[in-house]
């Protein structure tokens, strides 16, 4: 059976997302190793003085480009592909999606100018009263609004498909992609309110001061579900694509996959206080409630672990794999897309444990803002998400361009070097964090570093060096593929794993939107409402801006 | 089985039960530590005006430092600031071993963090808010307090110390 064909225009549109994403990753990833090298005592920042004024300007570039730009652009492109391909229909209103994309591009440029001019060295959390140039806040707003507009385009497409196909089970990949875009719309309300009611008018001189505690609360309303916005597209691939690629396996359970996505929608926003356990202005009872909800959102990740591993086992046994674990060797490890995503999944196991540890209320007292935190999120966003996206791009770019993947062996090496480099880097960061090392510090120069941290800081540098090589391999493979003269003979097959059980048997309540959306909003009002009401009632716009970089 | 009932594989059902039990156990452990053993996170203490907190003579942070409340019990008022030179005031406090010290920390400019190494004292310091935690120093030694939130280019040199004398 011939697969559904996207038009050339659609492929170009999705490819433009990939282009911006990979450019952002290329620039942002240059600075990651520089930070790691600094920790090991090899400080290159003095040589960069003409362009980059400080470690912190580099850290801002790294965080904004890698955590915000690379992810958001890749995700919006991937979700657009998923919705059109899985629904087998074009976008309902392609112009709307294009408008959204260009708003995001203009936003990135607007934010990049002050960052590169050292006018916005506020890191990717931009906590006030550090005050950046207004263009930085305008840029962030445009990126968020652009992603909303693209999301509306996806919702309209899904609604149009539903009208044409009443009483049919929605394809899982389209369902999960629309849900991810919806989660993003709900959770970004926090940062939108933060910027539009405080930071932007303040940076333009319209209001005198800001309330830092309220700003943090708005920020983390968005900040935690942001993690799920990154993660769910990787989950979509792990659930519904990877089993097929790994050995023609099927998705173990369509209904439980949907159930776990619904739980993510409902639970991923109302738990932001687990980033604010040690904030002075949030009552402990609410911190505790959010910690319990955080344990709740871990449940669908456990379900995901089961379904994904069971689906992979199905693939492994289909390839003749035997034994309790020996089937793992029969998976298609020579396919770089498979290797990258399997390795990403393995490290995510440890990322999940670390995340649960951070989120464990008073345990956070030993970890908050230590090097453990970046150690943790380099396993999640920088590996589970980023390495999976790299894996996806190993088939998606050839599919979109019609050009053969250049040198798949290099691509496999890229996946393994990322895996090894990240193990060394992240393990050292976790341990030195437990020993008390703070995050966001050029530790190579800090006056209080005890000798016992040194061996770990050296390992941070070694990990960074391996990751640098891996990043260079990735960019080489992408560039060489985009320019490859060798074309694919037939259109690249999009990996889509069928479910073991006919999705038509999935209960209807797992394919209905309204009750879940209302439930999600109600829970947010319930566990954020009282605290936000109190903070807004007692708002004190007393902090003027500071430029201390 | 009716088409509208959800099919859950036996192994998957067991896995979900295992996951739920594990999470309940974790939540119980955290709750026992919080409410049984009293390991608590900071609570709203006091709001101040960051513009005057370091200068107003009625503000304890205009004269930051240690106050003995009763024998062996102290209040430590600590001011964090990035301007002019990224430091905690005072830079050092000295208490005898066994002292119970309540730290009251605030900032007169940007956000900071306060982490006393090898203790549970680790919290955010925000302008306009006072962060409080109480620690008993059971062993002599020097405990650095390190700034743990980015506060400008001098963030990496911002620290002080509690010296616990035998």
- Distance from N terminus to C terminus of chain A (CA atoms, Å) equals 60 Å
Count of distinct strands of chain B? 10
**Gyration radius over CA of chain A:** 23 Å
Assembly of the depicted chains: heterodimer
Description:
The complex is a heterodimer of chains A (549) and B (166). With 549 residues, chain A is an all-alpha fold. Chain A has one domain (8-537): Cytochrome c oxidase-like, subunit I domain (Cytochrome C Oxidase, Chain A, Up-down Bundle), CATH 1.20.210. Chain A is built from 16 helices and no strands. In chain A, helix 13 packs parallel to helix 15. Chain B has one helix at residues 10-36, and strands at residues 65-70, 73-81, 87-89, 92-96, 100-107, 112-116, 122-125, 131-136, 141-146, 159-165. The model of chain B has no long low-confidence stretch (mean pLDDT 94). Chain B has 2 domains: 1-40; 60-165, Immunoglobulin-like (Sandwich), CATH 2.60.40.420. The longest helix of chain B has 27 residues, at 10-36. Chain B is 16% helix and 36% strand. Chain B is of the alpha+beta class. Chain B contains 1 helix and 10 strands. The radius of gyration of chain B is 22 Å and the shape is elongated. In chain B, strands 1, 2, 3, 5 and 8 form a 5-stranded mixed beta sheet that branches. In chain B, strands 4-10-9-6-7 form a 5-stranded mixed beta sheet, with no helix packed on it. Classes of the chains: A mainly alpha (549), B alpha+beta (166).
